[in-house]
């Protein structure tokens, strides 16, 4: 009996043309990570569950996939292995385990799949790629690193051409200091921050209602909190003016303001135009994990997509694994979700799904010429497919078009009898006849310079 081929829900499996676009996006991300001096690491998909779940709990723990062998299942044995659900916990384990062998600050990037038992719904994945960069220090980490990450993100999205986007930046110390000034206890402040983080998704009225009815804040305090969180600016000059206008004497407020000034100044010096940066006091990042600078990135024309890249500063990466003090700052792109969203809004890019050149086979006696041209093209790093299946020229040209090839080389009996091969540019709808030994150079010039064959 045949089994119906199918995939489970919550995975992103792509056909070749979309896979080529996905790979292009991934390559651009990795290129900019490397350009900023980050080192690639690769951690196991399977971790010891005791290590993986040493800190996390609640909803995250409920989404973990545990790993068990068939023998273990048969014996009803419990599993001590689990699939990673993010790249941050494996990083913390990695840095702690190899602490004595690493140099600090340790700048790493990681592009790997993670796994979560998400409820099946549109745009949510059980298996997905994350692209993370983090800078981890030992005891101290200069605030300038908080500026380097959004500069890298700006370079990535600018090259990808996703349209106008904005990196929203804040510092959690600002709101902490403001809430201190209102006399709110630390435990209540954490709950208030989580609700402020919902302003963009749930709206002002919803957040006000929760602050008043569930957290017990008075009307005056609620209005002050919302008024503070709704301040923003989209220029460096405006951001500095906004910071200058803050009132209050709380140490956290002063520290947050000083750090933000330093971060914004460094971002500007590294060449990011002010219209791509927003100082936004509503950005909190819901996790208490973050203690200072926080980031979220949105495509301006598609705010409903939510943040496409987020992260922030944390005080101690691996306190559950080591007594060493390891402050850091990191940012993450959910690549699978991002690509799914971009595809949904019609994103296009110049990506090739297969060979850029197809060499047709019309007569098996001409194979030596075809193989020679293929070898010379491949030596120039030009992906080439020799269509050994043969058949009519029309069939092979259709295959070339469907597979995304740009050039077709025709070396049939008639061409060789005349001492030439034909090169057809499918993109520009042009064709030339040329000596076989000159064909590889002609194709290489046309592909690498985006010029014509003539």
How many individual domains?
2
- How is the quaternary structure best described? single chain
Helical stretch tally: 18
Q: What structural class results from the helix and strand content?
A: alpha+beta
Largest sheet: 9 strands, mixed
Rg over alpha carbons: 28 Å
Instruction: Estimate the mean pLDDT confidence.
Output: 91
CATH homologous superfamily of the largest domain, by name?
Bira Bifunctional Protein, Domain 2
CATH architecture of the largest domain: 2-Layer Sandwich
**Into which percent range does the helicity of residues fall?**
40-55%
Report the top-level CATH class of the largest domain: Alpha Beta
pLDDT under 50 segments (min length 5)? none
Major sheet strand order:
1-5-6-12-11-10-7-9-8
Total number of beta strands: 17
**What is the distance, rounded to the nearest whole angstrom, between the alpha carbons of the first and last residues?**
57 Å
Described by the principal axes of the CA atoms, the overall outline is elongated
* Strand coverage percent: 15-25%
Catalytic activity: tRNA(His) + L-histidine + ATP = L-histidyl-tRNA(His) + AMP + diphosphate + H(+)
Protein name: Histidine--tRNA ligase
Binding site for L-histidine: 86-88, 116, 130, 134, 285, 289-290
InterPro entries: aa-tRNA-synth_II, aa-tRNA-synth_II/BPL/LPL, Anticodon-bd, Anticodon-bd_dom_sf, His-tRNA-ligase, HisRS-like_core, HisRS/HisZ, HisRS_anticodon
């Amino acid at each position: 009996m045949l089994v119906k081929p199918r995939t489970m829900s919550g995975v992103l499996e792509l056909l070749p043309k979309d896979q080529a676009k996905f790979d292009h996006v991934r390559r651009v991300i990795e290129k900019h990570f490397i350009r900023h001096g980050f080192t690639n690491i690769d951690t196991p998909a399977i971790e010891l569950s005791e290590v993986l779940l040493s800190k996390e709990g609640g909803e995250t723990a409920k989404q973990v996939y545990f790993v068990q062998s068939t023998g273990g299942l048969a014996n009803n044995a419990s599993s001590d292995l689990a699939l990673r659900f993010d790249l941050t916990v494996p990083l913390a384990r990695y840095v702690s385990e190899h602490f004595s062998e690493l140099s600090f600050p340790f700048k790493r990037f990681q592009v790997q799949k993670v796994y979560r038992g998400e409820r099946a719904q549109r745009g949510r994945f059980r298996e997905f790629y994350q692209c993370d960069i983090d800078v981890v220090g030992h005891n101290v980490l200069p605030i300038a690193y908080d500026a380097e990450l959004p500069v890298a993100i700006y370079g990535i999205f600018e090259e990808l051409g996703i349209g106008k986007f904005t990196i929203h930046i804040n510092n959690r110390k600002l709101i902490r200091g403001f809430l201190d000034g209102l006399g709110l206890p630390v435990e209540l402040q954490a709950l208030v921050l989580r609700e402020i983080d919902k302003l963009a998704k749930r709206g002002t009225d919803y957040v006000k209602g929760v602050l008043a009815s569930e957290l017990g804040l008075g009307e005056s305090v609620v209005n002050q909190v919302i008024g503070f969180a709704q301040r923003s600016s989209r220029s460096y000059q405006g951001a500095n003016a906004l910071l200058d206008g803050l009132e209050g004497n709380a140490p956290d407020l002063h520290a947050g303001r000083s750090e933000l000034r330093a971060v914004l100044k460094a971002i500007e010096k590294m060449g990011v135009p002010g219209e791509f940066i927003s100082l936004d006091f509503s950005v909190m990042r819901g996790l208490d994990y973050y203690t200072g600078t926080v980031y979220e990135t949105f495509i301006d024309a598609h705010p409903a997509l939510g943040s496409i890249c987020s992260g922030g500063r944390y005080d101690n990466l691996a306190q559950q694994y080591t007594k060493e003090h390891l402050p850091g700052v990191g940012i993450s792109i959910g690549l699978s979700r991002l690509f799914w969203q971009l595809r949904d809004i019609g994103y296009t890019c110049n990506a090739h799904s297969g060979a850029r050149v197809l060499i047709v086979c019309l007569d098996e006696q001409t194979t030596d010429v075809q193989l020679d041209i293929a070898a010379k093209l491949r030596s120039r790093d030009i992906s080439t497919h020799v269509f050994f299946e043969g058949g009519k020229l029309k069939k092979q040209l259709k295959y070339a078009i469907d597979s995304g090839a740009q050039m077709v080389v025709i070396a049939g009996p008639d061409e060789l009898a005349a001492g030439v091969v034909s090169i057809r540019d499918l993109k520009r709808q042009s064709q030339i006849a040329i000596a076989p030994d000159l064909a590889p150079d002609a194709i290489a010039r046309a592909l690498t310079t985006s010029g014509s064959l003539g």
